[in-house]
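<instruction>
Derive structure tokens from the sequence
<data>
Labelled lines for chain and fold:
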Amino acid sequence: MIEIVSRERCIACDKCIAVCPTNVFDRGADGIPVLARRDDCQTCFMCEAYCPVDALFVDPRSHPLPEPPDEAALAADGLLGSYREQIGWGRGRTPGAKLAVGPSLSRPGPPLTS
């Protein structure tokens, strides 16, 4: 479930608002997205994947945490934007570099390299 929108990192690009399939976010008066319908979050990670500045943290558990996580601790542990890193999205990252899910799928054309 979405837990954090970092006011320190957010650049108000609205990408998280645009990609959220369940319309969890509203644009705040200052341009920073707010969690308007947090309980509607389906933990799909689309918002975190598309955030260009790693300003979001989606907890893999699909229920709210008893207390909000500490943003500074998440940042120090490298967890803000960690899903983007795992899938290889973002400047200087190799697509799929850390993603290892399922068997290799055959497809026509030259083989994919990792």
Notes: The chain has one domain: 2-64+71-87. The chain has four helices and four strands.
